[in-house]
# Entry
Amino acid sequence: MNVLKGGPARAAAGFAGAAVLLFGLAPVLLSDFRLGLLAKYLCVAMVAVGICLAWGRGGLLTLGQGVFFGLGGYAMAMHLKIADAGPGNLPDFMQLYGTATELPWWWRPFANPAFALAATVLLPMAVAAVLGLFVFRRRVKGAYFAILSQALASAFAIWLIGQQATTGGTNGLTDIQGFFGYDLDDPVNQRMVYFVIAAALLALIALARQLIHSRYGELLVAVRDSEERVRFLGYDPANVKLVAYVVAAGMAGLAGALFVPAVGIISPALIGIVPSIEFVIGAAVGGRASLVGAVLGALAVAWAKTALSEEFPAAWTYFQGLLFVVALAFLPGGLASLTKAVRRRRPAAVPAAPVTPVGEAA
# Structure
C-alpha cells in the first residue's frame, strides 16, 4: 500500500513509521558494517525518488541519472580531497599521477565548502537544464530521449577515465578520510553520516510527494498522457518536462554527494551506463509511479546486487537485465501494482438489511 498516497493523516503516519525504522530500529538492530551498507542503499533510493517523478509521473525514461549522480559525487569528493590534503597541498593522486605543482583552476572553487555543497545540487541541475532545453524544445521523446541520456552517461564516464591527472582516471577519487572536519574512520561519525542520509531521503520523498499532489503534478501526468492536448490548452509541455528532469537531476546529485562519505570513493564505474540502468531497474521493480514502491524497489535491488553478486559474480548482470525485462513486460506497474490489484479483487461489503420497527411489521 502506498502510504504516501492519500490524505495528510495517512502521509504523516507513513513518514512517522519510516522515521521509526530508519532512526530507531535500524541503528539498534544493525551492526556498523550493515548500517554502512544501508546508508549506501538509501543513496540509491534517493535517485529512485527522482526517477519516480520524471519517469513514473512524467514518462521520461531517464537512463542517464548516473551523470547527475557522478556530478554531485565528484563535487563533494573534490572538496573532501582538498580538505584531506591540507592547506597548500595537492591531493594524493595528483602527486602520484600528475605533473602540476598547484591545483587546476577548475578545482580551486571546490576548496570552499559552501561552493562545494551548492555545486553538488546546482551543477547537476544546470547540466540537466541545458540538456533538457536542447532536447525538449526539439520534441525529442520516448526511446530517442532514453538513448540520448544513456549516451551522455557513457561520454561522461569516458571523459573522467581520460583525465587521470585531475580526476583519478579509472580509480576515481578514493581514500576519503574526512567529512567537514569529522574523521570517517570513527564509527560514531559514520553513524552521523547515516542519519544525514536518512533525513535527506525523507526530505526528498516529502518534496516529491508535494510536487506529485500539486497542480504541477497533475499537469505533468497530462503531458505524459496527451502532450498535444496540453499544448492546445496553452501550456508548453517542454517546460513541464524540464522541471521534472531538473528536479530529478538535483536529487541524483544530492544522492551522489552523500554517497561519497558513506562509501569513501567515487569513480567512473559508479556513474556510467550500467549504474544508470541499475537506478531505473530499482524504480521499475518496485513501481515507478509509486514513491514507496520506487524507494523499496531500489533498496531491494541494491541489496540483492550485494548479496547475489557475492555468490554469482558472473551471472548477476544477466539476472539484473532479466529482472528489468520481466518487470516491464509482465508487471509494468511494478510490485506496487500488486497491492492495487488485491484491493480491487476484494469483495464489496454487503450492506446490512434495514431493521423494521416491530410496530410497522405488525
